[in-house]
Design brief:
By secondary structure, the protein is mainly β. About 0% of the residues lie in helices and about 50% in strands. It has no helices and eleven strands. Strand 7 and strand 8 form a beta hairpin. The radius of gyration is 14 Å and the shape is globular. The termini are far apart.
């Protein structure tokens, strides 16, 4: 079965950086999208970024544009989220997720498309 594991969270001061990792296994098809979501206490689950396995097209939420970068590692089994210039409002649990059978779709922001989810990793940004 498809399994995803998120890691790399921690405590960082405002303006600092963290790199989150998502390791995926059990899935070899190319027509999927991997996304990052975050959820803070009292807030809705928020789409952060995604990358398409087919051609590595990337998309970002306005709130993280120009600060975060999503990329794949040496293989498509590992996905990174490089987070720079972190702000206190970035504090949340971050989840990686996989949307299968997406065809030609590249930008998928709705959580309903993602069938598989990792366990999440906590990111805390102090002021």
């Amino acid at each position: 079965e498809v399994q995803l594991q998120a890691s790399g969270g921690g405590l960082v001061q405002a303006g600092g950086s963290l790199r989150l990792s998502c390791t995926a296994s059990g899935f070899t098809a190319d027509d999927y999208v991997i996304g990052w979501f975050r959820q803070a206490p009292g807030k809705q689950r928020e789409w952060v970024s995604c990358i398409a396995a087919l051609d590595s097209t990337t998309n970002y939420a306005d709130s993280v544009q120009d600060r975060f970068t999503i990329s794949t590692g040496n293989t498509k089994n590992t996905i990174y989220l490089q987070m720079n210039n972190l702000k206190p409002e970035d504090t949340a649990i971050y989840y990686c997720a996989l949307a299968p059978d997406v065809g030609s779709l590249k930008r998928i922001t709705n959580w309903g498309w993602y069938n598989y989810w990792g366990q999440g990793t906590q990111v805390t940004v102090s002021s």
